[in-house]
Amino acid sequence: MTQASLKDEPITVTFSYWDGSGHRRNVTLKKGNSIYQFLQRCLDTLRPEFSELKTVSADQLMYVKEDLILPHHYTFYDFIVTKARGKSGPLFQFDASDDIRLVNDATQEKQDSHAGKVLLRSWYERNKHIFPASRWEPYDPTKT
């Protein structure tokens, strides 16, 4: 399979809009989409329900996965092919499930990987000294 066709594959990403408590949602996009494009899609999903997001742009959002703040310019493909790891395991696992009773679908994120948090940067700035935000750190591709 070529790199271009891999980047074009659809994936469903589970995320939790974080405003102090979690609001779990899913969005479908392509592996080649950037974190910024993902955040734009999240906004489209969340705006009807959360008035504080009506005037927000994706630039004002953050995506935190496995306690790592993921930069907007990376793509899901980047994290998948490098098998990037967070503090407690792989950042993204789109492998087929081990449970044969479930439909094996390599486009669905495995249930044992935690939903990433989508949040306002302003919320993070106000709460970065408090758990869980106090654990979060910028993603560093040189760390293993």
Automatic annotation (TrEMBL):
Pfam families: XAP5 (PF04921)
InterPro entries in the cross-refs: FAM50A/XAP5_C, XAP5
A single GO BP: chromatin organization
FAM50A/XAP5 C-terminal domain span: 10-143
GO cellular component, one term: nucleus
Signal peptide stretch: none
UniProt cross-references to PANTHER family, sorted A to Z: PROTEIN FAM50A (PTHR12722:SF0), XAP-5 PROTEIN-RELATED (PTHR12722)
Family: Belongs to the FAM50 family.
Protein name: Protein FAM50 homolog
Organism of derivation: Pararge aegeria (speckled wood butterfly)
